[in-house]
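Project outcomes to date are best conveyed with an example. Our students and postdoctoral researchers have been running inverse folding experiments weekly, and each run begins with a structure described purely in tokens. The record below, which covers 224 residues, was selected by the lab manager from last quarter's runs and is presented without edits.
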């Protein structure tokens, strides 16, 4: 850890998009990416894509999901994809800070979130990497929002979700998570690095609701 931090200090980052020095993904390029992809104009139901006020799950989909809504900062492409890869496989502290800033910027205040947690990874993945990238981001999101962070969930199994369809994803995550302790009776924000179908966040919401959370919202750095 100390060696990695020392290397980062000796090799300052440059923006993954425009190349300006001193930051891994500059504010101007982040905002431009949101404009280009329409993320500055409208939010949508994570499940069906219907436009909603602040990323809430639409009334139709709420009958099938305990997840109140999802906020995403960008799409999994270009500089954002590279940012997440650096976070996911190299534990780049600068990437974690930028990712957290991106997420914190898009979490609506009207959600009334009272606590932040993260999507857990399997024990196998943790042994390979030595850390959970979603937790790195979530702890920083909590700090930026002025909220407590608590590790509420753990995971069993290690199914690979990349490239599989929605039905397979739903089957893979069903029963994959469990509560480590009772959840506080407040709306909880669950942070992940990438969201595709929303199946993982939805399953986390089921577990957290059962554990006592009064609402569950999701947030991710990017949508795949």
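After processing, the design step wrote out the following sequence:
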């Amino acid at each position: 850890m100390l060696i990695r931090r020392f290397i980062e200090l000796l090799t300052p980052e440059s923006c993954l998009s425009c190349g300006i020095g001193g930051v891994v993904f500059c504010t101007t390029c982040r905002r431009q990416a949101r404009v280009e992809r329409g993320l500055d104009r409208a939010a949508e139901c994570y499940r069906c894509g219907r436009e909603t006020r602040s990323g809430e799950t639409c009334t139709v989909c709420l009958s099938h999901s305990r997840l109140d809504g999802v906020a995403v900062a960008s799409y999994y492409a270009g500089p954002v994809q590279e940012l997440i890869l650096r976070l996911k496989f190299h534990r780049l502290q600068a990437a974690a800070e930028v990712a957290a800033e991106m997420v914190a910027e898009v979490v609506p205040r009207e959600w009334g979130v009272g606590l932040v947690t993260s999507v857990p990874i399997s024990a196998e993945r943790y042994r390979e990497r030595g850390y959970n990238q979603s937790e790195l981001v979530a702890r920083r999101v909590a700090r930026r929002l002025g909220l407590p962070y608590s590790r509420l969930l753990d995971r069993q199994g290690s199914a690979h979700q990349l490239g599989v369809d929605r039905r397979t994803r739903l089957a893979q995550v069903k029963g994959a998570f469990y509560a480590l302790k009772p959840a506080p009776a407040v709306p909880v924000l669950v942070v992940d690095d990438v969201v595709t179908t929303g199946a993982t966040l939805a399953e986390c919401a089921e577990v957290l609701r059962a554990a006592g959370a009064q609402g569950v919202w999701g947030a991710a750095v990017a949508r795949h």
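The domain at 42-223 is CATH 3.40.50 (Rossmann fold). The first helix runs from residue 2 to 10. The training component of this project remains on track.
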